[in-house]
Amino acid sequence: MTLSLIILYVLTLIYLSMAERFRNHTTILAIQGLLLFGIAMLRLHSFHPVEMSFIIVETLVFKAIVIPAILMHVIRKTKINRIHSSSSQFGSLAMSLAALIASCTITVYMADQNTDMIFFGVALYALLSGLILIVMRKRIFAHLIGFLVIENGVFLFSMAIGVELPMLINLAIMLDILISILILGMFLRRMDNDIHTDETDALTSIKD
Amino acid sequence: MLTYIIISVLLAVAPLIVRSERSTNIIAATFFMVQVAAIAAIFHFDLIDSTLLSIFTADTTAVVFHILMTCVLGFALLHSSSYLKAEGISRRSYKAYYTILMLLAIAVTLVYYSNNLAMTWVFLEATTICSAGIIYHREFRQSLEATWKYIFVCSTGIAMAYLGILLLSTVATEGSLAYSDLSNVIAEGNPLYLKVAFLFIVVGYSCKMEIFPLYTVGVDANYAAPAPASAFISTALVNAGFVSILRIYMLYSSTGEVFEWARHVLILIGVLSLAVGAMFLRRTNNYKRFLSYSTVENMGIVAIGMGIGGLALWAAVFHVICHTFVKSSMFFQVGIVRHIYDSYSINRIGNYMNINHIGAIGIIIGTLVLLAFPPSPLFITEIMIFSEIIAVESWWLLVLMLLLMCMVLYAIWSRTLRLSYHSNQDELHLSAVNRRLSYSAAVLLLVAIALGLWQPEFLTDAIDNIVNLG
User: Within 13 A of B4's CA, how many CA atoms are on the CB side?
Assistant: First the structure.
């Protein structure tokens, strides 16, 4: 079951590299939140009400509902629709598949006996996918999506190495990320309102 | 500690509910007094090295940097009032500025005191959020751009650092990420994981310490923020990045071969930062960006000192302490320059010696101190770093550093002289000259010069303690 969810997660990342509409990107992020919820629940060794509640809040509430809702709100307000028309879908897909191969290679080289190799590889692939989105896409909104894909990759990574951080720390990390997303969303709207741009090429007024 | 945090947070948000600027100033002064009282309480109740609320430790590093932060904060609050009044901003913006600056000060303080790898990360991320409010404060196009870049790059960088923390946590026993617990078991960790973790953490935190590779967002942030806030960001916040990296460095000191590798990484980062500083100090046409690149250059020297180790590490810590006084003084002076010219343009403004000779003398002496001319304390630190480099026979590093520092010297000196003596091409706002502010900024510079002439025993003992030489 866990393996099926992980394979689905990889498929969402591949689809994300090809998707053009930002609404689709947001939906994929919501699906990733649901998948992460399922994976985290299946990996729970025993019934811990506090731990379970935390997983529900972090994955189901934040990653699958709250953050996609914030993104949809930004899309509605800024009326941004799709990635830049000049972007090549084939190029992005090729890059994404290259990242997948690189992730597998690095995993074989790096992972030790205490690490779950499948989780490790997929987490690495998620990180690279996020970075590719940030580097390859011109629209600022795509960068925000890339950042969230990286955050999901980090979540998977923590499961790969089986780390259980204290609840207080987990809570603080989760709130920090949520506030960052809120602020990034707010500034994205301000940029759209004040300087009428949603492309990184326009962000060049500060230079030496 | 809890009382300190609660009182500080309440005071920080209090300006939002008061009506006048005067009440805001009183609250800010009270906030400053709370910081002083907190430091006094640590000494009075002998709380040094004691654990507070299980995630904070008042060790020497934390206390020294808290004292430095409080010094800069006092001057930043004082200069901010004049700066904001001259800007003619609304009452709401005035109050919001003070609230955010005080919240940033709290987040920075908690970074210093965190005894836990993950909590250091959490509070560093909190500084990103608070800094964003200050960078955007002037609400012009460039500040919006700088704010977006700052939040985005810092958040992505810090997410990378979190990956490093996760990799480091593989060695943790029972999930404890306290530095003291990790130091006992880190030597048993997978060397490859430890190396990758170090790389991720240093790269992630480089946006705070303003070193290569993520230094750019710090430079943009200093450019967009009001000058007194830039003084705070370029010193207290940079020190938070330094403390975070220093704690990781000390943690790795028992890892043998991995530590050697980590030191080489720091030397490489240091040299690249120094090169970036040398290149852009000559290129930029804005005095605030100019000072920011000087921070990049100085933090590069600090990273090299850490990479060399031994006495150079001691010098690196002393360098950061002295840099705090010099750089904050320079930013406050440049804030007054803007007051007068309504510009930071290097190519257009000049004749400052005749307009505000106190300010001009402050800037010239500050530049000399920054360039490490005796009796600058930076002269001592740089000589110590050079002697350690010679001791380890790293000649290529010595030659490269000397070459880059010559470029820095030429760039900084020629541009400071331009401000003081070249003819001015911009409109003047002479009514705004406030010499008392120039004098107050010079106080910080005098402290730095005093440290160059005489290093008190308590300070040298404290640095010995920080670098574990005691």
Answer: 22
Taking phi over 0 as left and psi of -120 to 50 as alpha, with beta for the rest, B376 belongs to beta
* Binary contact (A176, B122; C-beta < 8 A): yes
pLDDT (tens digit per residue) in B405-434: 999 999 999 988 888 888 887 777 665 667
pTM, full prediction = 0.94
Residue B458: CB atoms within 10 A of its CB come to: 8
| ipTM of predicted complex | 0.87
User: Count of alpha carbons within 13 Å of B382, Cβ hemisphere only?
Assistant: 23
Of A140, A168, A206, the CB nearest to B220: A206
Could you report how far apart the first and last alpha carbons of chain A are, in Å?
54
Q: Specify the residue for token string 């790096």.
A: A110
Which residues from chain A sit within 8 angstroms of residue B148, using beta carbons?
140, 184, 187-188, 191, 203
Compute the C-alpha angle B448/B399/B279, nearest 5°. 70
Peptide bond into B375 cis (omega under 30): yes
Given the DSSP bridges, would you call strands B51-52 and B56-57 parallel, antiparallel or unpaired? antiparallel
d(CA A125, CA A133) in angstroms, rounded, equals 12
| Element holding B51 (H helix, E strand) | strand B51-52
Alpha carbons A131 and A160: distance in angstroms, whole number: 20
Q: B116 forms bridges with which residues in the sheet?
A: B178
